[in-house]
Amino acid sequence: MKKPVIKLRDEIARLQEQLKQAETKEAGRIGRIALRAGLGDVEVEDSDLIKAFEELSARFRKATGAKEAAPGAPQGNTRTD
After folding, report:
1. How many Å is the maximal CA-CA distance in the chain?
2. Which InterPro entries match (predicted)?
3. Structural domain includes residue 15
């Protein structure tokens, strides 16, 4: 049974808002951990931090035996904002 386009758009908007909230929550968590680890006092380029986080992510994925991220999960994000 097909859903009307308006219902699909509403569902997409609702899911995008949920994703935004989840990402904000995770960003806060990771930020607090980074500050506790002393990264707030380190002057480093965003690109260097991104590379270090990617290496850390790969290390933990390898340690848990995960060969791939969850389907649809971002990999190798190079945003600098």
Report:
1. 56
2. TraC
3. yes
